[in-house]
Amino acid sequence: MSVGLWLLVALQVTIPASYYLLRDDRDDERFAWRMFSSVRLMHCQVLAFDGKTPQERTPVLLARHLHASWLRSLERGRKHVVEHFLATRCQEPEVHYGLLERACTSPSGRPLPRTHYRYDCSLRRLEVVQ
Amino acid sequence: MSTVSGFWLTAYRRVRAFWLLRALYTLLAADLWLEMAEHGGRYGIGGFNVAHFALLDEWLPVPTASAYVGLVITSGFVSLSLALGPAPRWLRLLLAGTYTLTWMMSLHDSYQHHYLLSWLLVWCAALPDVPVRGARQDTLVRGWGLPMTCVTCAIVYGFTGIAKSELEWRSGEVLQALTHARPPGAAEPGKFDAARDLLVQLGLSEATVWQLFALSTIALQWTIALGYLAAPRRDQDAARWRVWVVTLGLLAAFSFHAVAEIFQVFEIGLFSYYMMVVALVLLGPSAPLTLAVRPVHWLSERLSAENDTGVPIGLTRFWGPALSVGMLAAIGHVIPLPGARVACWALALLWLIRAGISLRGGALAHGVTQQIALNAAACTFVMWLALTQTSVPFDYYRRTAGELQRMGRLEEALSTYRLAERYAPAGRSRAATIREIQRELSRDSQHRRQQ
């Protein structure tokens, strides 16, 4: 019993610690106890595009397609939401790529590098380019 | 027994378990009904959803407003019922499950304090269900529920301090953004600007002041964490250093959450209240907690079916449960939110089964049956108050309508705004918005005819 309980403690420590140790997705702070962190307070804007090719693209009016809550998730760079949303764009005719650009500023207003997401409809794979 | 394994069997005063269950479940019921239910309209809009885990996306259908609100209503009822007691362990586990599902089913809800509450609710299931009569007894109880609750809180505050140790926080940059800081002399100063100006007048540079605020916040987090780590053994081993560490933790928790609430720095619903209540129960001295049981005990004695004060409660063995369960099922038809009917019928069925099982227990269980009936009646009444006599129905419909309008779904927005208007509190009418949408729809229709 005691060992099991200590394992539970270890699990509770490992989950938030993995945010710092693995660093695979800096934007995903859900289980890291990072309330009101510098990441959370970044101001971001997103633009989405339907792509026939990675170069040939038409803008998507995000506000008409998604609830504001999902827009915020895209702005926060929630990768699962980005992936799901871009995957839904593949259902539109002649769309072979779903593209999203995310531009952020730090809490003090300093511009941060843009993030580009590209979802390949045929491979069903998301690529993230910083 | 070693200190390591013995930690989970630390003895503590009964009153802490009593208040932890009662206070946490009461707050949770309020949170679910008054804060979470009104956001239900966003679930299922456009058929888009992403759950917290990919596995849930595969297993669960896209959650609808009815499913979410129904789950919230059910969880709120169970929570209040547990707060009033009795609190059977299976029902506590059921609540931990249904509550966790409310946030886990969708990334619409990614508040970290909801995740924290899920942990706490699981640990609450391990606490002893101390009745009111037993809460004032001086004898200690043992168990891992309370130590684990302390450890979880320590981990949370510890990591919160780590998160705030990054450069942007330490420099005060984040705090300035959070408190909407403005330059000295601005017409609309930020929340901490008065304190900043005072310290600047004392000779500190502005940058130093913000660093000081930020470092104080980090120090508070870690003081609270240490307090929680020292707290479990406080009743068993009240060494002076331990009492000091725990008391400092309590003061730090109160100052941090009270300041956050007074200045509305974080805007995180009831979270500050949860953490103040948990701190009071786990870090506070036991004497005031025991004193606070007195009025509850007095009230409980008056209501108890077992007492001999001669106060007739007017409920028979069968009609009491039948009436209260019937009322519970019926109230679902009065609550103007999707999912309410199904939730109330499901709850009524569950309470009927509970009452039925207790009836089979014979004469001794008679009091239990009446307790279940009274519990259902009280929870039903409070639920009716919370979901019909507050701004919850209005907020639910106006939020949903606002989003539909923004998404260009004007006809749906119009009908939803009309629903909101039915429940609009004084001064919050949406009549102007309704007229605006009607004009827009009429223009669209004319435009289509001309084409």
Q: What is the string of helix and strand elements of chain B?
A: HEHHHHHHEHHHHHHHHHHHHHH
Task: Please state the average pLDDT score of chain B.
Answer: 91
Indicate the overall shape of chain B: flat
Portion of residues in beta strands of chain B equals: under 5%
Pair of chains with the largest interface and how many residues each contributes? A-B, 40 and 45 residues
Quaternary state of the chains? heterodimer
**Structural class category of chain B:** mainly alpha
- Give the rounded overall mean pLDDT of chain A: 92
Following the backbone from N to C, one meets helices and strands of chain A in this order, namely HEEHHHEEE
Numbering strands along the chain, what is their spatial order in the largest sheet of chain A? 2-1-3-4-5
Please count the helical segments of chain A.
4
Give a short account of the largest sheet of chain B: 2 strands, antiparallel
Secondary-structure blueprint:
The complex is a heterodimer of chains A (130) and B (451).
Chain A (H helix, E strand, L loop, with lengths): L1 H21 L20 E9 L5 E4 L1 H4 L2 H8 L3 H11 L7 E9 L9 E6 L4 E5 L1
Antiparallel strand pairs in A: 1-2, 1-3, 3-4, 4-5
Chain B lengths: L2 H4 L4 E3 H23 L17 H6 L5 H20 L4 H16 L7 H13 L7 H4 L4 E3 L2 H19 L3 H4 L2 H6 L14 H9 L4 H25 L9 H23 L8 H13 L2 H18 L15 H13 L8 H20 L6 H23 L3 H15 L3 H13 L8 H20 L1
Antiparallel strand pairs in B: 1-2
Helix pairs in contact in B: 2-4, 2-14, 4-5, 4-17, 4-18, 5-6, 6-8, 8-12, 12-13, 13-14, 16-17, 16-18, 17-18, 19-20, 20-21
